[in-house]
Amino acid sequence: MQIEHPSSETEAQALQEALAAQVISDDQFDSVTTIAGTDVAYDDATNQLVGAIVVLDACTLEIIETQVVTESVRFPYIPGLFSFRELPPLLSAFERLTHKPDMIVCDGQGLAHPRRFGLACHLGVVLDIPTIGCGKTRLTGTHETPLETRGASTPLIDNEQVIGEVLRTQDNIKPVYVSVGHKVSLSTAKEWILKLTPKYRLPETTRQADQQVNKALKALQAQG
């Protein structure tokens, strides 16, 4: 697995534009028996990133495998280029997996990004795996407020282009922002996020990865 590490903001933007052209917005997969979640957190004190990938059974949502990696930051904090900062520890965690997932859900954006290339797109293209972006907050675009019932959604629009769906995963709870990452259509991405949210606002993939990251972050901070 080869990944380029840009040395400047200009280089990163050029690479981002080149990789964005490779994103596929159609369903290109067969059955999904395993699905993974990712999360990344930053520790200010040590300038380290903690990245986690948790693989779940796609039917039962039970955890099959977890890999957590801590690495030094390689790229600065630049809005719109977060994936260059967060991708390295996730790729390291992915390489350690013995159960390679059929699909990945990222705690972040896919096409719902100013340059249509959020973390979910970046991870999907580099790994060549179907990937979905599911963000807690809006990064760009405008939308109507979806109805308060589970499953209700409205399109997220930017420059007259639909870049995602604003999806209510539970009744009377704040919606999430779903977008294409790679090799998954928007309608399929929305279906999967609903499957992954039987009880809570966030998909189980994200919840489990977040718990692993927080646990590792606390351990890291305790060492300091």
TrEMBL record:
The record marks Y77 as: Interaction with target DNA. Keywords: Cytoplasm, DNA damage, DNA repair, Endonuclease, Hydrolase, Magnesium, Metal-binding, Nuclease. It is found in: Cytoplasm. It catalyses: Endonucleolytic cleavage at apurinic or apyrimidinic sites to products with a 5'-phosphate. The keyword DNA damage applies. GO terms for biological process: DNA repair. One of its GO terms (cellular component) is cytoplasm. Its cofactor is Mg(2+). Mg(2+) binds at D39, D107. It comes from the Bacteria. Its EC number is 3.1.21.7. Gene3D superfamilies: archaeoglobus fulgidus dsm 4304 superfamily (3.30.2170.10). InterPro entries: Endonuclease-V. Belongs to the endonuclease V family. DNA repair enzyme involved in the repair of deaminated bases. Selectively cleaves double-stranded DNA at the second phosphodiester bond 3' to a deoxyinosine leaving behind the intact lesion on the nicked DNA. This is Endonuclease V. It comes from Pseudoalteromonas rubra. The gene is nfi.
